[in-house]
Design goal:
six-stranded antiparallel beta sheet, single chain, 20 strands, 372 residues, alpha+beta, nine-stranded antiparallel beta sheet
Length: 372
């Protein structure tokens, strides 16, 4: 081989090797990306308590947003009804703590594979979350697919308006359902406190179930059963008296938007310790809505000795006891204020289960049998 040809091949080989080394170095730099381990939004964790607006949008569920004013979070899509503060706190803290693992695709054609595409196309599956402090947008993020733990875990995401997508630690998924943004709790009156439940239907039929005393277990039907019928067993009357137990709603609207002038059913719920809750149910727009208010009643004199006994009971016996369930006059007064502060001015579409209970008829609590 001529010396000139040899030198040319030597130079070519050296150039090729240099190029290969350059590629390897570039790959090593990218594989040890300097932002790996960095926070997605540096400094946001220090300001998370200042966030006063959050909005979550998807193509399937639409947009839901909450704003904080005077220390109170309210949901815009439901006339400013109170938001679930604990849920919002968790979601915003999780947003502020997002830590990056490594960069992923910056090609829009590949965004759908990890669900970080821009919203607008009906097929988009990303979740967009925007957080603000005043007029400043402190986060605007498209959250995509959560990677299974068996393949390393993490979640794919992309800042809105930026091409680069990322794999981040954890499995952050913004709450996107309207019902989960709302504080759905209306009241929670333990059934063991209930003395009497009285329903009045628009046609005049009444259904009343009560107990003889706070320590009595048996429920009785106060109305005479229809001829040839008898009241069902006490355990079948019992569900009617638990209407206020964990009462939550599926939807809410201002009470002024519902006509309660001629209610389908009116209910009165009385406890042994002096709480009275009255509720009206009306039908509108294909749904049943209830409005309720609390007021003080006359405590049963047999309650006070039970409350007195509470002070000396052992912790093991007190937990789950009737004495623990009953409330003092001061506690009842606080409960009345809380129920009225929550429910005042609002109409609720409660769960189907609670709606069915409120519409109970005599036929539902009686059965064929000896009328005596």
């Amino acid at each position: 081989m001529k010396l000139r040809s040899f030198l040319f091949l030597l130079v070519l080989t050296a150039a090729t090797a240099a190029a290969a080394i350059a590629v390897l170095v570039d790959e090593r730099i990218r594989s040890s990306d300097p932002v790996a381990g960095a926070m997605l939004y540096p400094g946001l964790l220090d300001r998370v308590n200042d966030i006063d607006f959050v909005e979550v949008s998807t193509m399937v569920d639409g947009t839901v947003s909450a704003r904080r004013e005077d220390g109170r979070w309210a949901v815009a899509q439901r006339h400013g009804y109170p938001a679930d503060f604990d849920m919002l706190k968790r979601m915003l803290y999780d947003l502020a703590r997002i830590e990056l693992i490594e960069p992923r695709t910056s090609r829009p054609a590949l965004y759908p594979k990890i669900r970080v595409e821009d919203l607008g196309d009906n097929s988009a599956e990303s979740i967009r979350i925007v957080a603000k402090i005043g007029e400043e947008t402190v986060a605007d993020l498209l959250v995509g697919l959560a990677r299974p733990e068996e393949t390393g875990g993490g979640v794919f995401l992309r800042k809105s308006g930026e091409a680069q997508s990322w794999l981040a630690k954890g499995g952050f998924q913004p709450v996107q359902l309207l019902t989960r943004f709302l504080d759905r709790n209306i009241a929670n009156v333990e059934q063991r406190r209930i003395y009497r439940t009285h329903l009045i239907h628009a046609d005049g039929e009444t259904v009343t179930v009560s107990r003889a005393g706070p320590e009595e277990m048996a429920w009785i039907l106060e109305e005479p059963p229809p001829p040839g019928h008898k009241a069902k067993a006490g355990h079948e009357l019992s569900p009617l008296t638990s209407w206020l137990d964990f009462l939550i709603f599926d939807d809410v609207r201002p009470a002024a938007e519902v006509d309660f002038s001629k209610p389908l059913v009116t209910g009165r719920f009385e406890t042994f310790d002096g709480l009275v809750v009255e509720a009206d149910m009306a039908a509108q727009d294909g749904s049943h809505w209830v409005a309720l208010a609390a007021s003080p009643g006359a405590p049963d004199p047999r309650v006070q000795p039970l409350l007195d006994a509470r002070r000396t009971m052992e912790a093991g016996k007190l937990e789950g006891s009737l004495q623990m369930a009953l409330k003092t006059p001061d506690e009842v007064a606080t409960e009345i204020d809380e129920i009225n502060a929550t429910a005042g001015g609002w109409a609720y579409r409660v769960t189907d289960y609670k709606t069915d209970k409120f519409r109970t008829r005599l036929a539902d609590v009686t059965e064929a049998g000896d009328e005596n």
